[in-house]
Amino acid sequence: MTPAQRRILIVAILSSFVAFLDGSIINVALPAISRELGGGLPLQQWVVDGYLLSLGALILVAGSLSDTFGRVRVLRAGLIWFGITSLACGLAPTGLFLVIARVLQGVAAALLVPSSLALITSRFSGVAQGKAIGAWTGWTGVAGIAGPLLGGLLVDAATWRLVFFINVIPIALTLILLRRVEEPLRPAAGARVDVLGACLAVVGLGGPVFALIEQGRFGWTSPVVYLPLLVGLASFGAFLWWEARAPHPMMPLGLFRVRNFAVGNIATVGIYAALNLGFFLFALYLQEVGGFSATLAGLAGIPATVMMLLFATLFGTLAGRYGPRLFMTVGPIVAGSGFLLVTTAVPPINFALHVLPGIVLVGLGLSITVAPLTAAVLGSIHPGQAGIGSAINNAVARVAGLIAIAMTGTIVGSTLDVAGFQRAMVVVAGLMFLGGIVSWLGIRRVAPVADLPPSAIGEPA
User: Fold this and answer.
1) How far apart, in Å, are the Cα atoms of 219 and each of 205, 404, 418?
2) Average pLDDT over residues 384-406
């Protein structure tokens, strides 16, 4: 690896680390935010979903921006904007201000991930590219461990506002390193930005999410709820119609004609909806009902991430040898069983007895699932389509989490208690089981596609 390549890899890792860290660090800070700014459960939902809404809706179009205007330029803009919005979040005087800042922060995060990966793929090739992407994946995975623990320490030692202010340090370091990174040769010729598709996606997701979160306050019969819902559903329908006809769609729907790609993304909906809802409520429940400090709540989820770091590569290798179907079936069932086991955590909560066994099972299940799921989705399409395929799968996972968290009030009620938590964990387990069942029924082992044209892929071997 040359010095220039090493610098690019560090820039790519730091850029994405900030976005992933902000996604994992926030859950343990939500009770403290609610205590200071009020708003209860709806505000906690919006603080998470505001970020996921803009990130999930715009991550696909961000790849086009990177191709059109250049990777380094878009990455620099994303970093600066992420820093500004992080400061805005940390200085938020009201809950509404914080939610708006989080939506704008999600826009910045959408610019960071595709551009950082594009930098790697433009400067590395062959085995070196695989190693670089592996390093990027490993270090961004560390954000899953560092986030909850760091967030808990900052909340307990000082204030939740430091959770956002801390972003400025890696952003400043990345911007300094980025000054010495040259723009790759030239942006892709003919690249276009699907502006209409992006707008329809934002409205199509934002309307239903608003209705799901606010129905507990206004009721389904209120025009404040059903009008955004109807507008959102109509916009999402228009989004699908447009993407099927647009000359440069942000989400090429033709990929969903490939069996494993389509089934893998359906399984992703269940698995990642469960994962986001489960850990969102897990962190809240331990603090608001179990009496845990923010630091202890952050520590409680770490065993799951450690299990993934230890075993994800092993199961990815086994899936490459035996095919992904079995692993995508067993893994979600194991993870769902872990979430069911967590329902035994009734105050007074004994962490070792009531929490640890279930969380370890969740981590083991995710270890069995995640790499085979990624392999099934991306291995079913032509390598030339891997970039957009990965972006679509990432967006599906984000949107699944967005909708699941928006449904929290419907599942648990206006206040989180033991009964509501147990009910939610049963729903989470059911979503996991559904992902496993879909995988068993739909996933097939496909022939290698590396040397085939895009039109010849996806048939069962």
Assistant:
1) 19, 19, 24
2) 83
